[in-house]
Amino acid sequence: MSKFTVQTLFRPEVLALSAYHVADAQGFIKLDAMENPYIWSDEFKQMWLARLKDCPLNRYPDPEARELAGMLKTLNQLPNEIDVLLGNGSDEIIQLLLMALPPNSHVLSTTPSFVMYKQISDYLGLNYHGVSLRADFELDLPAMLAAIEQHNPAIIFLAYPNNPTGNLFDENAINQIIAAANGLVIIDEAYEPFANNASFMNRVANNVLVMRTVSKLGLAGLRLGYIAGEHEIIEQLHKIRLPYNINVLTQTSVQFALENKAVFDEQTAAICAERRLMLTALNSLKGITAFETAANFILFKTPENQATNIFEAIKEQGVLIKNIHPQGGLLKDCLRVTVGTPDENQAFLQALKVALNF
Q1: Is the pTM of the predicted complex or chain greater than 0.70?
Q2: What's the CATH code, domain 6-41+262-356?
């Protein structure tokens, strides 16, 4: 007979969670996960493989990935007093930040925003507070300032651009939040490549840290995120970072990609051009409202109570997007589509037109 039950063994916070769901995309045109749709040319792949062939797989990697971290510092023109910590995707960095907090700390963000801020806070037993955005998806500054006054959060997460809405929050509002905060303010710039140089990277100092990822740039399979902050803060995060968290193949591959950044810049430009075409096409459809975006995805509103039906009808035609409607609130009746290649985007638009006529 078992000496324990799952209910008695694990913390209530863990038992109450639902696992992060990733849809099975096999056989679909995949436009649900904000990935770069462009594959590498055979010539570019051969250049990459040539770099990998001498990787010492029998040795542990540099635990701090110092060469890659230095490259990222140079690329982002960071001064000496600012350090960079690398994570297994941005998710690990969010986890490290929240793990470092004292018990019962308060965490603040917006609603809606990136789901992992709340998910990780919840399973660590922290007090998470989501302040609703305004109807135009902009920060509700009075409500944010009131929440800071009430909860004194140890960490505030602001996604810039925001996911899943895609917009850039008002810079002046962010500055007022930074000024009011007694804890850390994390500006999550996962979609920075598509945001026309909008960034707080030159504001990293004191309580302001900027987090980025190479996933949206075109390296999602490598799972590499990083955060820039003052030395004394990054030093504490290194203490709880698991050793060798960035494997040698990832370190080498990202270095290779950054050395050839022009290739990815060209892909980013193509995605931004397609984004504009898709926005125009979506807003020409009766019953559809597509929202302006500074990311590589578009949030759009469907006719009332039709989002799930439209999502399923699009899926039946072999195109997978994201159904945001179940989250409710400001996202009621909304779907989200990643900007893909021209052919993928046309397939999606055609599937949507068919779905609207059901």
Answers
A1: yes
A2: 3.90.1150.10
Residue ranges per structural domain of the chain: 6-41+262-356, 56-260
Kindly report, residue by residue over 224-269, the tens digit of the pLDDT: 999 999 999 999 999 999 999 999 999 999 999 999 999 999 999 9
DSSP string, 325-336: GGG-GGGTTEEE
Mind listing the pLDDT tens digit for each residue in 36-73? Answer: 999 999 999 999 999 999 999 999 999 999 999 999 99
pLDDT at 6: 80
Residue 204 · residue 228 · CB < 8 Å? yes
- Give the CA distances from residue 303 to residues 135, 214, 298, in Å, rounded to whole numbers and listed in that order: 17, 35, 16
β-bridge mates for residue 289, sequence order: 301
Place of tokens 């989002």: 307
**Distance (Å, whole) CA 291 – CA 92:** 30
DSSP3 helix / strand / coil % (the chain, rounded to 5): 45, 15, 40
Mapped onto helix, strand or coil, the DSSP state of residue 132 is strand
DSSP sequence for 70-88: HHHHHHTT--TTEEEEEES
Which tokens belong to 200?
């707080």
- CATH fold, domain 56-260, is Aspartate Aminotransferase; domain 2 (3.40.640)
What's the Cα-to-Cα distance from 99 to each of 12, 113, 188, 214, rounded to whole Å? 17, 20, 18, 23
The vertex-326 CA angle with 320 and 329, nearest 5°, equals 130
Residue 348 and residue 17: Cα distance in Å, rounded?
Answer: 33
What are the tokens at 262?
């022009």
